[in-house]
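Why does residue order matter? Because the sequence determines the fold. Keep that principle in mind as you read this record.
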Amino acid sequence: MRISRASKIVGVATLAALSLAGCGGGGSSDSSGDANAVITVDGAEPQNPLVPTNTAETGGGNVVEQIFNGLVSYDENGKPVNDLAQSIESKDNKTWTIKIKPGKKFSNGEKVTAKNFVDSWNYGAAAKNAQQASTFFEPIKGYDEVSGEGSTADKMSGLKVVDDTTFTVELVEPQSDFPQRLGYSAYVPMPESAFKDMKAFGENPVGYGPYKMKAKGAWQHNTQIELVKNPDYDGPEKAQNGGITFKLYQNPDTAYQDLLANNLDVLQQIPTSALANYKSDLSDRSSDKPYAGIQTIAIPYYLDNWKGEAGKLRRQALSLAINREEITKVIFHETRKPATDFTAPVLEGYKDQLPGSENTKFDAKKAKELWAQAEKIQPYNKSQKLTIGYNADVGGHKKWVDAVANQLKNNLGVEVEGKSYATFKEARTDANAGKLTGAIRSGWQADYPSMYNFMGPTFSKGAASNDSRYDNPEFQDLLKQGLGAKDKEQAAGKFQEADSKLLEDMPSIPLWYNQANVGWSENVSNVTTSWNGVPMYYKVTKQGS
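Structure:
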C-alpha cells in the first residue's frame, strides 16, 4: 500500500550497491537475551487469510511482514536494503532487470526462483483473483488487460522470466519510485505450492522471512497467531528471538493492562486512555517518535449529502470546524501533531504549508459560511445523520471520535455521532464493499517511504483503500507526472500539487500525524520502531523463562 529515501534515480538506476550492513540501525544487541525465547505482542484479527497480495490492513499486515520478505527490506529510517535482490537495474526507469540471490529457500524447503516472483505478481494483478493489493501492479505493462472487469487473463506482458535468478519488468512508462516500492509485502514471492490451494495457504502461509508459522493451526482465530524463528532466513532481518506470538485483542485497554502485568512483551500503540500516564507507568520502557502515518476521516461520495459541489463545500466545512490543536493537546497529550496535508512530515518532499492547507485550520465562522453556501446548492438531508465509524478492538479511537463529533455539532449545528465496529475487520469489510452509511476513520500507515504511497493507494480510482470512492482525473494526472519525473525534486513538486488538489476536494479530512507510542515489558530489551511506526520485532531480545 508509496519521493524516495534511497539514492536518486536517474540514468542507470540500481539498488545493487545498497549494503546489507546498512540495515542494522536502532538498538544494540543484548547478549543476555535468550535467542530461543518467544516474545508476545499485540495484534488484531486479520481481515482476510494471510495471502500477501490480499492483505491491505494492519491486523494481517503486521503478521505477513514477519513471514514474507522480498527483494528489499527497509531499515529503521526507510532506506531500502537488498534482501532477496542481488541487483535491481534500469537504464531508463521503464525496463528493469532484477536478479535474485541464488540458493535461497522458502520455509518449506522450496527453492526461491525468479518464476516465484512473476507468478505471485501475476496472481496479485489478475481480476479473477480479486486481490486487494491488485492496484500495486498497475505500473506494469499488461496490468490493464488482466485487471479489467471480467478478464480471465492472468499473465502481464511486462513480466518475463529470463532464468532461475533473473526476471525483467517492463512498465507502461518510467516511474521514479518503482525500486522503493519493492519492499512492500504485495511484491513478495509465494512458493509454487501456494497456487495449488490458496485458501489453505492463507491459513498456514509459507514464505521467505525471519519467521514462519509455528505449525498448522498456529492461527487460532480471534485469539492468537504463533510464529517461530525461520532458520532458513539469512537476510538483513534475522531474528534475535525464538518467535512471536500475536495476541489478538478485542480491547486496547486490556492489552495495556497485560503490558503493565508483564503478560505482554510489546504493545505497538499505547491506547488513548493511557497516554497521560504511560511514561510514568512504564518508566524507561516506552518510546515516542513520529513515523510515516496519518489519521483521517473518509466520507464516501456515494452518500447523497456528500456529492458534487455541495458535498465539497460541506467537507471543507467539516475540516474547518475541527479544532485539531485542542484534541491533540487534551486527548493525545501532544503525542500527535495537527495535520496540514495528506502525507507525513517524516517523508522527503513534505511541505507543511501547501495551497489548500488553510482548509485544515480551525475556523468555525468560515465553516458555517461554507455550510450555508452548500445549503443554497442542495439542502442537507437531516434524516441521514452523519456517523463516524471506528473500530473498538485496537487503537483506542472512541475518545477522539466523540471529541470530533462534539466539535462538529457545536460548531456547525449538525447531528454527528460515533459508530462503533467491534473489530477492525468488520469496519474494513464495510468500507471495501462500499456499504458505509456514514464517514469512517481511514488512517494510513505507509507501505514504503514515498509521498505517492499516501495518495495513490488511498485516492486513486479503484484503489482498495479509496474509502471515499474519490475519482478526479486531474489528481490522477498529477500523480502520473510525479511518478514519471526525471528526478526526486521534480517528483516532489508534482506530488505536492496532487496533495493540494486533495486539500481542495477533501475526499477525506486530515486530522493529525501519528507518532509511535510503544511500550514494552520488563522481560525484553532492544525495542525500536521502524520508519512506519511498527516495532522491529526481529531485533527484540527476551530473557529465557
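The radius of gyration is 23 Å.
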